[in-house]
């Protein structure tokens, strides 16, 4: 597992350049351009299970969801940040991408430190230190458990009595 | 205990007596804005649309504006798919290429009203706070789910109150004001929060409030909203909206705010946001004389009639500097027609400006004025992120229409106070 580490205010243009937003919408089209203007090595080397650590306001800027779709498709296990921008946070819930808001864990992370995430317990271990993060509200958990918002919506539409 | 604007709107829409920050509520938005990205949104749910249909033909507002007219076969096909969807499902509020930037069109057409909830698959949906709407951006997947079920969740945000005092000193404008606020708060200064503007707002036109609400997202805000006053009512009357058709929502005097901030308008001076962050705000006097290759006047932030007029007045009797280019993209067809009628477009063109069709123009770097490596742009838009205008080795500065016009004359960043 690789830990990718970035700074504060990583915006959506860095995660996925705006010039591609109306020509790339499938995971296949998005993947080669992921983080293109931030870290050109990312798209070619990211592996399923990798984790991203970042500073505050991760995902600020546009409402574009391609970064979330792309990171989810690339198999990124979680993004651990000091804070997330709100539309990005929402988009991640809708795609079932795990975001962990834990500034202490980000500050504690040193290069090479082992990272372990236990979602059910709401615990993240960084090197020797253990931090907890709050569980998701039940309404949101239902969306994540269904596998994202569209799966959740489909389920609701198909429910008897809709 | 009193409630803030956001708490009141969400409580009303959720059918609850009261709500508190952090609470999750289910809401049926009044409108859902989507634009060129409608094709991708609809593409996610085609089988469900075939089976269950669109939840309500009045819900979506669709405006083709981002890459218009189509710049490639791919964008043309996507526009065609949007038109087919509109046709097939009887979408009532559709605006084809040429109508203008979605946010301007939504407000001009009276589709964002005081006290309503409008969501849009575009981050600058928050603009409609200018007329007292609870308006916020969502992603494409959520827009798709809304087209099917018409309902979504909101976490009641904490609210930040920004009180304005005094009057701006022209040529200082609302753009300078909101950039100064973002510079002070930082790009995440209002993250997850609702921002309420209070105090001396009567000196700000609806257009200026639009500019400020538009940039709410650049401080991370969920919504950025102005109280509804006589100007708002007059504006809405002017576009044919009856007062009886909306119910303005006002924060209670004893509402509880997570944070407050006071701003002295007299002390605001012309500023620019320097690359590559919107909160990297400096007084224009710090960057005087910086050569600029391309100027952009337009976008949902500053492409309205008053913005074009300000620029035309400053450019009067001057020419755009040799070696620089000035692009003007009116925010909507209504703005274009009005500016044509009043001779503003003619004056801008005579000064050497190049007039683009109403729409987003070069704002997102897809076409019509992409920058070359090493080039520098001074723009009235809302984002200067690296790569935003199509080239990551270019630099974007953000400023007011007055600063852009004054600088276009010299080809260098210029203080509009020295020309006005
Ligand atoms: S003008 Fe620019 S910021 Fe506004 S909606 Fe269009 S692309 Fe977005």
Architecture overview:
- The complex is a heterodimer of chains A (162) and B (420).
- Chain A is of the alpha/beta class.
- Chain A has one domain: Alpha-Beta Barrel (Aconitase, domain 4), CATH 3.20.19.
- Helix content of chain A is 34%, strand content 17%.
- Chain A contains eight helices and seven strands; from the N terminus they run βαααβαβαβαβββαα.
- Chain A has helices at 12-15, 27-30, 42-45, 66-73, 86-95, 103-108, 138-146, 149-158, and strands spanning 3-5, 51-54, 78-81, 98-101, 115-118, 123-126, 129-132.
- Chain A has a four-stranded parallel beta sheet with strand order 1-2-3-4. A three-stranded antiparallel beta sheet of chain A has the order 5-6-7.
- In chain A, helix 7 crosses helix 8 (149-158).
- Chain A is globular.
- The model of chain A has no long low-confidence stretch (mean pLDDT 91).
- By secondary structure, chain B is of the alpha/beta class.
- Chain B folds into two domains: 5-263, 2-Layer Sandwich (Aconitase, domain 3); 272-418, Aconitase, domain 3 (2-Layer Sandwich).
- Chain B contains 14 helices and 18 strands.
- Chain B has helices spanning 5-14, 38-44, 46-52, 73-89, 102-108, 140-149, 174-185, 206-214, 230-238, 299-302, 305-315, 333-341, 344-350, 401-410; strands spanning 24-27, 31-34, 60-63, 93-95, 117-120, 134-137, 152-155, 159-165, 194-199, 223-225, 259-264, 271-273, 281-283, 294-298, 325-329, 354-355, 376-379, 395-398.
- In chain B, the strands form five sheets. In chain B, strands 4-3-2-5-6 form a five-stranded parallel beta sheet, sandwiched between helices. In chain B, strands 16-15-14-17-18 form a five-stranded parallel beta sheet. Chain B has a four-stranded parallel beta sheet with strand order 10-9-8-11, covered by helices on one side.
- In chain B, strand 8 (159-165), helix 7 and strand 9 (194-199) form a beta-alpha-beta unit.
- In chain B, helix 2 packs across helix 4 and helix 11 runs parallel beside helix 14 (401-410).
- The longest helix of chain B is centred in the N-terminal third of the chain and has 17 residues, at 73-89.
- Chains A and B meet through helix 1, helix 5 and helix 8 of A and helix 2, helix 3, helix 4 and helix 6 of B.
- The structure holds iron/sulfur cluster.
- Iron/sulfur cluster binds at residues 66, 101-103, 122, 124, 299-300, 360, 363-364, 381-382 of chain B.
């Amino acid at each position: 597992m690789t830990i990718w580490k970035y700074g504060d205010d990583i915006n959506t243009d860095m995660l996925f350049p705006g010039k591609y937003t109306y020509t790339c919408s499938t995971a296949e089209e998005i993947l080669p351009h992921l983080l293109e203007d931030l870290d050109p090595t990312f798209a070619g080397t990211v592996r399923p299970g990798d984790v991203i650590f970042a500073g505050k306001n991760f995902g600020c800027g546009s409402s574009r969801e391609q970064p979330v779709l792309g990171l989810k498709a690339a198999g990124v296990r979680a993004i651990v940040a000091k804070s997330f921008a709100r539309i990005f946070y929402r988009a991640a819930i809708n795609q079932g991408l795990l975001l962990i808001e834990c500034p202490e864990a980000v500050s504690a992370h040193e290069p090479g430190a082992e990272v372990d995430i236990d979602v059910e317990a709401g615990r993240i271990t960084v090197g020797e230190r253990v931090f907890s993060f709050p569980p998701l509200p039940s309404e949101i958990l239902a969306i994540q458990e269904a596998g994202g918002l569209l799966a959740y919506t489909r389920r609701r539409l198909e429910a008897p009595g809709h | 205990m009193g409630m803030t604007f956001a708490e009141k709107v969400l409580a009303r829409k959720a059918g609850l007596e009261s709500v508190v920050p952090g609470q999750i509520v289910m809401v049926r938005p009044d409108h859902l804005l989507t634009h060129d990205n409608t094709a991708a949104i609809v593409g996610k749910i085609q089988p469900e649309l075939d089976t269950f249909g669109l939840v309500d033909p009045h819900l979506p507002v669709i405006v083709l504006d981002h890459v218009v007219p189509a710049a490639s076969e791919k964008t043309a096909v996507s526009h065609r798919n949007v038109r087919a969807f509109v046709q097939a499902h009887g979408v009532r509020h559709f605006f084809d290429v040429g109508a203008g930037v979605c946010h301007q069109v939504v407000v001009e057409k009276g589709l964002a009203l005081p006290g309503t909830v409008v969501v849009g698959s575009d981050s600058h949906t928050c603009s409609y706070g200018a007329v007292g709407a609870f308006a916020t951006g969502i992603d494409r997947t959520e827009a798709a789910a809304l087209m099917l079920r018409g309902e979504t969740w909101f976490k009641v945000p904490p609210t930040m109150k920004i009180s304005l005092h005094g009057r701006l000193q022209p040529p200082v404008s609302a753009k300078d004001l909101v950039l100064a606020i973002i510079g002070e708060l930082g790009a995440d200064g209002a993250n997850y929060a609702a921002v309420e503007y209070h105090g001396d707002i009567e000196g700000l036109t609806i257009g200026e409030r639009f500019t400020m609400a538009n940039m709410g997202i650049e401080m991370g805000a969920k919504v950025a909203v102005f109280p509804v006053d006589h100007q708002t009512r007059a504006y809405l009357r002017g576009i044919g909206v009856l007062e009886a058709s909306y119910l303005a929502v006002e924060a209670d005097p004893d509402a509880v705010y997570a944070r407050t901030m006071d701003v002295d308008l007299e002390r605001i001076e012309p500023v620019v946001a320097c690359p590559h962050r919107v909160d990297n705000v400096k007084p224009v006097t710090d960057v005087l004389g910086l050569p600029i290759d391309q100027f952009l006047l337009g976008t949902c932030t500053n492409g309205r009639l008053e913005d074009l007029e300000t620029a035309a007045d400053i450019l009067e009797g001057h020419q755009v500097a040799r070696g620089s280019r000035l692009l003007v993209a009116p925010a909507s067809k209504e703005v274009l027609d009005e500016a044509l009628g009043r001779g503003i477009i003619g004056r801008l063109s005579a000064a050497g400006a190049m007039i683009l069709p109403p729409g987003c123009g070069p704002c997102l770097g897809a076409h019509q004025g992409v920058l070359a490596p090493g080039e520098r742009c001074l723009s009235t838009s809302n984002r200067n992120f690296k790569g935003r205008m199509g080239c990551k080795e270019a630099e974007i500065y953000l400023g007011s229409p007055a600063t852009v016009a004054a600088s276009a004359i010299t080809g260098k960043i210029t203080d509009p106070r020295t020309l006005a």
